[in-house]
Amino acid sequence: MSVLESIPHAIADGHRERRLGIRWWLLVGATCAVLICGYLVSAGLIALITATATSAEFNLVVVLLAALPGWLALHQSALTITGAPLSVLPLLPTAIVMVLIAAASAWVARRSRLRRPDQAWPLIATMGLVHAFAGACIALVLAGPFSAVPVDAFLSCGLTATAASGAGVANRCGLIYLVWERVEAEVWSGLRIGLLALAAAFTAGGVVLLIGICASAPDMVASMSRFDGAGDAFGTSLLSLLYLPNGVLAGWAFAAGTGLSLGGLTVQPLHGTPGPGPLPDLPLLAVLPSQPGIGLSAVALALPLAVGVLVGLACRRVPGGAPRRLLAVGVAACIAALGVLVLAYVAGGELGGGQFSLVTLRPLALAAATMCWVALPAAAVTWFAGPVVFDEATTTSADEVESADDTVPAPDTEESEADSAAPDADATEPQAEVDDADQSTSDAEDDPDALAPESPGPEIPHAREPIAPGSTRHARSEIDPSEFDGAVDEPWPAEAGDGYESRND
User: Fold this and answer.
1) Average of pLDDT values for 272-277?
2) What is the pLDDT of residue 474?
3) Distance (Å, rounded) from C-alpha 146 to C-alpha 219?
4) Is 134 domain-assigned?
5) Are both 177 and 276 inside the same structural domain?
6) Are residues 240 and 322 in the same domain?
């Protein structure tokens, strides 16, 4: 057997350069798939409501045409139906579409092996612009009872898709790492705790909504019984389910004290203004109390206080003195207020132009109240409770074990080095052959991440922990810097004494 015959085919062909950048055919296919999936979601919901309605006649052509303005509604684009404005749109289908866009963007980034922030913006921009132009084109061709403003459709569809696509590739392409690298440790901790505060606020709104549903269950049953048949009751129940995230936001607005308004109807803790007439027969609207009781108001006002205490307990773990912990509290309060402001603005709008037309959650007042409910209790807990004291004995023992591992003596004789190196070489040669063979067939494999020579970087740390001045350990980078700042084709330099090996991208 000759020498060449013993060399695998992939190694004999030589190293093939990895293709960098977006695979545009994948991006085009994923974008079209997301557009089609959104249209099918809209058509499916309209077909389900039309098929179960008592007095409606199911027509497939009408359903397919009505799915076009329904696609705009999925992206929170305001509509006009027979002259009546409708901008209070359900948030649950929008969340589903955003999850689809984020998943498709992450899949394209993974298949294209995108690693750096500068590789993410073409993907995000393409996904956003395609959805924006699709929304504008649909708004231009709408006729009959439905109409929409093309500029509004362009902005709403584009912003929705851009936000979802950015969230999908944020971790993969290092956007989170980019923020972590440029902010202080307490600011980074405040950003994380702010997301926790936002989730806690939504949980509190869900608790308020659940209490309202349990208290008004007879009214909801009576509202559904006034319909002609079971199909109409099912349709209104499905519509209430789609508006459930809007109800959660309304529950948080009630708990925060700012309340909500539907035309002349105002609902606030310990105060309520009756509307100009009876509410429409929608099960979710039966939850609104005409005069909130003392028990419901007391429970609702205690929930934001619990959110602030939770944020304060989380900020106690921020390293440093009291000013650093208070800075983390301020950042967390700002993040929670900003998230509530955006969602409250999206959830409000016109509702048909009738006596309950203007639906508002008072976004500015709600954001200010959220900031106060989060910042004041959290600052008090952080200031008076002090920082979390970690067990020094456990930390000392862990440092001793790590220092003992770092000071293990290396073999002195050349024979022991040869004996230890021989098995490693034998073990790595088959693996190198497999890696090169896989790289030559990378286009045919399903998971390109398994073909890349580098292993995926570790997760973003919670906070940066500085190394003590007297420590003998080397400062190791949490993430391969060549994936973000340097040229990907240059080798990663080895660090002497730490067991690092030079590796090419």
Assistant:
1) 68
2) 43
3) 33
4) yes
5) no
6) yes
Asked whether residue 13 is assigned to any structural domain, the reply reads no
What pLDDT score does 385 carry?
85
Cα–Cα distance between 23 and 36 in angstroms, integer?
20
Decide if 430 is inside a domain: no
**161 shares a domain with 225:** no
pLDDT band per the 50, 70, 90 thresholds, residue 480: very low
Residue ranges making up the domain that contains 203: 184-389
Q: What are phi and psi of 369, to 5 degrees?
A: -65, -40
Mean pLDDT is highest, among 140-149, 162-171, 483-492, for: 162-171
Average pLDDT, the chain: 77
Q: Which of 168-177, 231-240, 465-474 has the highest mean pLDDT?
A: 168-177
Residues 247, 264: Cα–Cα separation, whole Å: 18
Instruction: From 134, 149, 182, give the residue that closes a domain.
Output: 182
Query: What pLDDT sits at residue 153?
Result: 93
Contact 348, 361 (CB under 8 A): yes
How many domains is the chain partitioned into structurally?
2
List, as own/partner pairs, every contact residues 132-135 make where C-beta atoms lie below 8 angstroms and the sequence separation is at least 24, other chains included.
132/157, 132/158, 132/161, 134/35, 135/71, 135/72, 135/75, 135/77
In DSSP notation, 391-445 reads -HHHHHHHHHHHHHHHTPPPP-SHHHHHHHHHHHHHHHHHHHHHHHHHHHTGGG-
Stated as kind and residue range, the H or E segment containing 272 is strand 271-273
Q: Which two tokens stand for residue 377?
A: 């209790």
Q: How far apart are CA 208 and CA 231, in angstroms?
A: 29
Q: Comparing 329 with 470, which gets the higher pLDDT?
A: 329
Q: What angle do CA 360, 69, 249 make, to 5 degrees?
A: 25
Give the model confidence (pLDDT) of 323-365 as tens digits: 999 999 999 999 999 999 999 999 988 887 777 778 899 999 9
CA-nearest of 172, 349, 173 to 261 is 349
From 344, 370, 389, the end of a domain falls on 389
Q: What is the largest CA-CA distance in the chain?
A: 95
Same domain, 306 and 350: yes
Q: Which tokens go with 39?
A: 């249209």
Enter the DSSP assignment of 493. P
**pLDDT score, position 21:** 64
Q: Among positive and negative, which fits the CA dihedral 335, 337, 340, 345?
A: negative
